[in-house]
Amino acid sequence: MATRTRSKKTCTVIGGCGFLGRHIAEQLLQRGYAVNVFDIRTTFTDDRIQFFEGNLCQTECLLPALEGVFAVFHCASPPYSADDRELFYRVNVDGTKILIAACKQAGVKRLVLTSSASVVYEGKDIKNGTEELPYAAKPIDYYTETKILQEKTVLGADSADLHTVAIRPHGIFGPRDPHMLPTTIATARAGKMKFMIGNGKNLVDFTYVENVVHGHIIAAEKLEAGSPVCGKAYNITNDDPIYFWSFLSRLLTGLQYDTPKYSIPYTVIFFIALLVQFFCFLLRPLVTIRPTFTPMRVALAGTFHYYSCDRAKRDMGYAPVVPLDKGIELTIKAFPHLKNSRT
Ligand SMILES: NC(=O)C1=CN([C@@H]2O[C@H](COP(=O)(O)OP(=O)(O)OC[C@H]3O[C@@H](n4cnc5c(N)ncnc54)[C@H](OP(=O)(O)O)[C@@H]3O)[C@@H](O)[C@H]2O)C=CC1
Ligand SMILES: CC(C)=CCC[C@@H](C)[C@H]1CC[C@H]2C3=C(CC[C@]12C)[C@@]1(C)CCC(=O)C[C@@H]1CC3
Questions:
Q1: How far apart are CA 30 and CA 35, in angstroms?
Q2: What's the longest Cα–Cα distance across the chain?
Q3: Active-site residue among 33, 142, 143, 318?
Q4: Cβ–ligand 2 contact at 80 (below 6 Å)
Q5: Is the CB of 269 under 6 A from ligand 2?
Q6: Which of 110, 118, 145, 334 is at 20 to 30 A from 166, Cα to Cα?
Q7: Which ligand lies nearest the alpha carbon of 61?
Q8: What is the reported pTM?
């Protein structure tokens, strides 16, 4: 059971058992905060943390976790790969509205949303994209569609009672990552990582998790009446874009897998991914097939998508705390169990 000192400020991390949420919780402890974690499943233990289990769509579950809290970090979401429109709307849109109302009821003054830089991404190149870019008019999936609605709701709720800010990370990686690195390795193990999509020269942001955490915490600390951060969105990246296929190749070589040597034109593979998606849709009543190369993944692998952090640097003094090379090294070290045993 967590012991609390009266002088410590308490923060609540919604989705705090997830990849990013747990890193936020651990860094908050390091920086001297008391921490509540709220999640639908409790997947780890830590004597310093007070855990609350529940669905964020239920006010009565949320309220005990929000009492007397200095700041709330909202990083719960269904995984981006869930192909479930109803679930995304229920959690990301309705659940976020319920959370905002609960924060107000509990008297919480600061709410930090984990949004995504992809809210402006439509599958076409973005080079040094700023927060001034319009939201995607044609979001590439339900995940992106509901992240846009979620961000608009949170920023629209900014008021004297509840100050809000949205952090837009991109391509988060690091220890305990359940998405990027495991998907890359699973694709390599399945023998599907033989070809690069496009010419391999598309620059992309990959962001080490501790930098994303740092962006969230400094935003929360700045979030008070009169601050420029109130009601605004902020890109948070490593500020060091890298060729998509160089990044993936570094993870693959680090874990002793072969890297792709040949390339297929982007338009060809995108068209094939569209066709595969269409056939999966037709076959859905009979069988559920989850293709590795969805149009979204192909677009993410073959286009430029990197973003400017200038606004975060200016308004909250943001600078990455872990350089990209170090982040890659720490990540590879954290996944010894995914090393290729066949070499
Ligand atoms: N990973 C990335 O590259 C990026 C992520 N983001 C955003 O960052 C945030 C965190 O992502 P990440 O840590 O990778 O994701 P995770 O899936 O690791 O974490 C999300 C957590 O939220 C929990 N959760 C889901 N639904 C509910 C609910 N109804 N009530 C309470 N808890 C719930 C999940 O539980 P369970 O696992 O049981 O579903 C999980 O523990 C998300 O908002 C995501 O959109 C933004 C940009 C990039
Ligand atoms: C071609 C192939 C199989 C690559 C494997 C890596 C991918 C799993 C990642 C490459 C870019 C990543 C990314 C996200 C998820 C993982 C990747 C597709 C997000 C969609 C996660 C959620 C977001 O908010 C945006 C991210 C963009 C980049």
A1: 10
A2: 61
A3: 143
A4: yes
A5: no
A6: 334
A7: 1
A8: 0.95
Cβ atoms of 14 and 2 closer than 8 Å: no
CB 213 within 8 A of CB 27: yes
The tokens 């989850």 sit on which residue?
Answer: 290
Please indicate whether residue 143 is annotated as part of the active site.
Answer: yes
The residue whose CA has the least distance to atom 13 of ligand 2 is 171
Predicted confidence band at 179 (pLDDT cuts at 50, 70, 90)?
Answer: very high
Spans of all domains in the chain: 10-122+132-173+207-237+307-321
Which residues fall within 8 angstroms of residue 73, CB to CB, at 6 or more apart? 11, 12, 13, 14, 16, 21, 24, 112, 114, 216, 220
DSSP secondary structure code for residue 336 in this structure: G
Nearest CA to ligand 2 atom 5: 184
- Collapsing DSSP states into helix, strand and coil, what is residue 15? coil
What would the pLDDT profile of 125-144 be if each residue is shown by its tens digit?
Answer: 999 999 999 999 999 889 99
Q: Is 298 in the pocket of ligand 2 (CB under 6 A)?
A: no
Task: Tell me which CATH homologous superfamily contains domain 10-122+132-173+207-237+307-321.
Answer: NAD(P)-binding Rossmann-like Domain (3.40.50.720)
Question: Which ligand is the nearest neighbour of the Cα of 190?
Answer: 2
